[in-house]
Amino acid sequence: MAHNLIGCQAPSLTLPDVNGQMVDVPGSGMVNVPTAIFFYPRAGSYGCTKQACGFRDAVEENSLFRPDRLRIVGISADAPKKQKRWVEKQALNFEVLSDEAGYARKEYRVGKGLLGLVDARTTFVVDKHGVIRRDVMDATLSFQAHVDFVESWLERLGREEGEKSAVPMISEWL
Fold first, then answer.
1. What sequence ranges are listed for the domain Thioredoxin (predicted)?
2. pTM over 0.85
3. Which residues are catalytic?
């Protein structure tokens, strides 16, 4: 999907987590690893649970998703208290933040999905420099596609880093 934030610095946000603690989201330059930010319609719903558990399982099973290699942030309009129950029930192992006022959705320009009936299910990959990468995953009904999208971007970012480290620095030539 073409998105007008691609190639731009990710918006800086501060949102409450499931315990009500304020958390900074990329754009602030605080993180030195890529960040996957996924917006989902509603904590506890079938599709959102499938999507979130896909990310949870990827953290446990895929080394690309280790916390030292990727920060995962899930965002919905649900209140922190509702999200906390859901996070605990599903044993989610990444940050889940509340956007009750819709500020994050507005800043990331996330609209409606499923014929305008629900908030869109949209995933962004922000590189370690805080830039939103070339593609955005916007699929309302394909829950696993969001995890697959992030995995393909992590592989691509790894190749790019490898290419940069393979190029000798000018100081190495002297």
1. 4-159
2. no
3. 48
